[in-house]
Amino acid sequence: MTIALLFVTVCFLAYSNGANDNFKGVASLFGSGTTSYRVALAWATVTTLAGSICALFLAETLLVKFSGKGLAPDSLIQSIPFITAVAAGAGMTVILATRLGFPISTTHALVGALTGSTLLATGTIKFSALGASFVLPLLLSPLVAVVLAIVVYSGFRQIRQRKAINNLLCLCLENEPTIAVSTFIGQSGALAAGQNRSLSIDNRSACESRYAGVILGIDLRRAIDALHFFSAGAVCFARGLNDTPKIAALLLLTPALVLQEKIILVALMMAAGGLLNARRVAETMSHKITTISHGQGLSANLTTAMLVIFASKLGLPVSTTHVSVGALFGIGLTAQQANKNMMVSILLSWLLTLPCAALCAAGVYAILNTYAGIA
């Protein structure tokens, strides 16, 4: 009974996580008009699932035993009903935010659920640990992302303006005929024909009208879009690689299924959540924070990827959700197209994540303890 209930709640949490998080990496693709919602969602699903599958081969390294982050004692962490309440509280909060179209952090929902369940069980909580796991990331992640996005996009824009780069330019790699003149003492000069390869930037129409010696013509807009797709896929892959083991770790107390099977189960539920319930968060991330161009979308994704990777290397507590939203908002501020009212609403949803998850988890734990008699 208790093990089955834990499986159901963890699957629910994984589904909620996929619904709220899967599209965040590709939001700039959809928002910039680079591709359609369906294509962006398919790319997000494939790359996130690829990251989850990669976790199979790194499971022993990535799957860290679920801890109370200094909030809950080890005795509670070893309790299946307690973990069930934490998973249920976090899942309920994330799915509610998803239904309302707000992108929130699943990690912060888990922290809130831990807080609520621990307070109900012990009556105390370590506020210093709460500050390190919730308050610091909440303040740090979006602020750093906004600043970095402004720097990245401003740098790209200055380069574009100085070089007069626009969407009608292409890179042309071509063979150019050359004539070499050789002279030897006592002999008449000789002419030798040859070819040199040259790389130039020109208008697309000029590239298309050149002779057959053109080896490769790269449309700059297509090149940007390709890099944009790659960066979006990289963000989704990294999220799948990191989040899948974290959620699967909640199942470590159960003897059913081997480690790899638990990861596959979580990965499939995350993919299902993204495919079936990502639309509202996708609209918020793609269209309601700011309007973006192809280049702006690439800048936002590069900012997200760089910050998440470097923060992970340095051990800084940043949230991928807060970074991706902050990057989009920073681009919007630079281009003077940011929707400040929507950003205020999103910030409010972030602030409410912890108390909402705490109340939900405490309620579930109380029900398990009082009525089911299994806590």
Automatic annotation (TrEMBL):
Compartments in which it is found:
Membrane
Give the record's GO CC terms. Answer: membrane
Q: Which GO terms describe its molecular function?
A: phosphate transmembrane transporter activity
Q: Note the superkingdom of the native organism.
A: Bacteria
> Where are the annotated coiled coils located?
none
Keywords associated with the record: Membrane, Phosphate transport, Transmembrane, Transmembrane helix, Transport
- For whether the record's keyword set contains Membrane, the answer is yes
* BP terms from Gene Ontology: phosphate ion transmembrane transport
Give the transmembrane ranges: 42-64, 76-97, 134-156, 247-277, 316-335, 347-368
How does the record classify its membrane topology? Multi-pass membrane protein
Classification via InterPro entries: Phos_transporter (IPR001204)
So what family is this one in? Belongs to the inorganic phosphate transporter (PiT) (TC 2.A.20) family.
Official protein name in the record: Phosphate transporter
Q: Which organism is it from?
A: Methyloglobulus morosus KoM1
